[in-house]
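Record 1 of the preview.
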Amino acid sequence: MIPEANLRISLTELSLRGERVIAQQSEISYAEALAQVQRLKEISKVKQSQKKSRPKL
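->
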């Protein structure tokens, strides 16, 4: 079993790891983000005829 002391991580170290991950991600503009949201909304629309209907109780 791993000693508990080895499992602890400081908030500072965790924060630095998060900053490194964010720094590696590519930048996206606000307009690109909005366009992506619109695309996802269009893709995720389900026609009423494709929905499964549940019997009402």
